[in-house]
Amino acid sequence: MQIQYYGELKLFIDGEWIGADGRVTEDVINPATGEPIAALPHATAEDLDRAVAAASRAFRTWRTTTAYDRAKIIRKAADILRERAAELGRRMTLDQGKPLSESIPEIHISADILDWTADEGRRTYGRVIPSRLPGARWFVTREPVGPVAGFTPWNFPGVIPARKISAALATGCTMVIKPSEETPSTVLEIARALQDAGLPNGVLNVVHGKPAEVSEHLIASDGIRKITFTGSTNVGKQLAVLAAQAGVKRATMELGGHAPVLIFEDADIDHAIRVMVHAKYRNAGQVCISPTRFYVHDSVHDKFVDGFAKAAAALKVGDGLDPENQMGPLANNRRVPAMERMVADAVSRGARIATGGERGSNRGYFFQPTVLADVPQDAIIMNEEPFGPVAVTARFSTFEEAIEQANRLPYGLASYAFTQSAKTATMVSDAIEAGMVGINNNAISMTETPFGGVKQSGYGSEGGSEGMEAYLVTKFTSQS
Ligand code: NAD
């Protein structure tokens, strides 16, 4: 076994780095090999209480630190992350699996998120309302909601926490964050960059442990005023209930999706294939905005499937540390059997495997880039988010039929359409039930644009000026 340096994993509480020191630990696995690379200490109940107490104490001074000074620290941390991007990207590849061509850019994107959001914190304007009372001033101010508990998943260990941390800190909130235990290195390094940039102790705290135990404990803590979660709809529902029971705490929920892609008769098929193959197999399909259900006009269906399957089959799959590889393993050993189950079910109902369909290798958690054609509506994969490298197609004949299929599921996160008609593009944008619509492109997740879902894909936005709202409360003052 080749030992790759990965770094020692710790808890980060009140500015202090805390190692295992007798605590329960959990192995972090390299998904390309299935071998452990580090031991992650779990927080005890006392550690969690200390983290909340630190976030509450730090909130008193951080909220009164000027937005200008908060932004300076966050922007300095962004520069530090950029300097360390090559090494942090490599560690992300080791615990998450994505190729270096994705992990290193993810560190740069995380830095960009910190930069933009830090400055947006300087623009959380209030408003003055003409008063009905003679001589009185009526004004509306925006204040930080308070200490936040954040829970982030394993698919984007940099970008998702960067969004939550930067918006919380830029608006004057403090945070206790629990990254995924499977991919903890990047959040710890974001915390280290912030500490090195001068972040006061307690403003950001990082804890690890059994997800349900940590989230129950933190959400119930009096000091926590807001919850932010990214993950599955099932877990999101549980956390929303806990947040309500713990005191009607505010919550932002970024949950699952099952993105439809409408390929109309007049689409530029080669362009659609190029854009969608990249979007589908990025991060081995473990993306909540991953294009999944391809509804293709009957007249161009076979041409699209042939081209898409050829491009998918040409992708180089292997250990993400090899710069030649374009797609890495799945992030954990739950995803491979999940893919096998969904593919077998679709095939048993009459779907055709256009490419892939099998495990990629006996070592590590690989699955081939897969395209299933003519998948019936009752197949599991047409209804449950695959969260893996599998695209499925079905045919449509009319616009109404395409929209009905696209809107059929209880999710509404990302959606995509390809057409050369401006009229069709506008009709899609109006008719589709989704938080984001990419028409002839997949550029739907940027730091300056709102990201979030409708229906059971959750509520609240991250990114853009909308993303700041989640961390602010509104106060109206009437002053005579
Ligand atoms: P899961 O639902 O158990 O976990 C999803 C994420 O939530 C993980 O990061 C996990 O650590 C966290 N989590 C689980 N239970 C929690 C709890 N009680 N409190 C706080 N956090 C908790 O399942 P999984 O096997 O890790 O992933 C399966 C499905 O989750 C995927 O198929 C996908 O639908 C969804 N998922 C979505 C995203 C996203 O970006 N929206 C990311 C990862 C997973």
TrEMBL record:
Pfam family, one: Aldedh
EC id: 1.2.1.-
Keywords, alphabetical: Oxidoreductase, Plasmid
Highest taxon in the source lineage: Bacteria
GO molecular function, one term: oxidoreductase activity
SUPFAM superfamilies named among the record's database cross-references: ALDH-like
Keyword Oxidoreductase: yes
Annotated ranges, domain Aldehyde dehydrogenase: 17-476
PANTHER family membership: SUCCINATE-SEMIALDEHYDE DEHYDROGENASE, MITOCHONDRIAL
Similarity remark: Belongs to the aldehyde dehydrogenase family.
Protein name per UniProt: NAD-dependent succinate-semialdehyde dehydrogenase
